[in-house]
Hints:
By secondary structure, the protein is α+β, with helices and mostly antiparallel strands.
Amino acid sequence: MGRLTQQRWTLVQHSAYVAKQDATFQHQVEQVSITTEADLGRVLNLGGLVFESYMAAEDAVDEVNNNPTGPDGQPADPILAFHDSYKQSGLPLYIPPKEGAVP
């Protein structure tokens, strides 16, 4: 497996929370690039989101950050929302809540 011919993007936990433990960013995401086939496969297998353009990923960042709730309307549970054992660019992968899931 090698490098992707077209760069892709995914969402991860915001670096301000990961690096500085700034609680303001605990439930926030940011976009990072996926450049290898192996990383793309891992993101997809874990249920992460994949975008074909930076702008599509940026739109998703705005949507997640402006609506940080789980399916019951409560704040998103970071244990359900982020996959700490797999990191993309050193940041926990964002896993969107499954429809109908109860945190």
